[in-house]
Amino acid sequence: MKSLNLYLSCLVLLFVLLLAGCQVEPQPIAYGEVNCAHCQMTVSDNRYGAEMINDKGKPFYFDSAECLALYLDQNPDQAEKAAYVLVTDFTKPGELMDARSASFIQSKELPSPMGMYLTAVADEATATRMQQEVGGRLLNWEQAMTSVKSNEKPE
């Protein structure tokens, strides 16, 4: 009887561990160690990194919101199935947030890794304050994607 209880306990533990290993969650970006899934450049600036987690939990890393936007535009099936679409909050280096709720500033005073001058912040108030300091224009995620797709740069 003891061996049956031990066996069942081990089986339950194994099941719990398997479920925990299958969770779809954002992964920390290993800056300086991973390459961008779009342009293959090393992801090195922790103020601009981005990430997409597919529906199976596989992370795709990007050196900027621009590369993430282009990748999603060129891979619409991935965009539809993405569990997470994340960008880094410029004011909190290394901290990822949902791209769809982020605010973006496009300003020549904030050069991003791919030269589109696109910088993400967590909220519109912060974006407005930064825009007043550095100029440029404010965008939401859809506008940022359109800007990147059409290769619009600030004047």
What does this structure look like?
- The protein has about 160 residues and is α+β, with helices and mostly antiparallel strands.
- The protein has five helices and seven strands; from the N terminus they run αββααββββαβα.
- Helix 2 (about 65-75) crosses helix 5 (about 140-150).
Radius of gyration: 19 Å
Which shape, going by the Cα principal axes?
Answer: elongated
Order of helices and strands: HEEHHEEEEHEH
Order of adjacent strands in the largest pleated sheet: 2-1-3-4
Report the average pLDDT across residues.
Answer: 89
- Total helical elements: 5
Quick synopsis:
This protein is α+β, with helices and mostly antiparallel strands and 155 residues long.
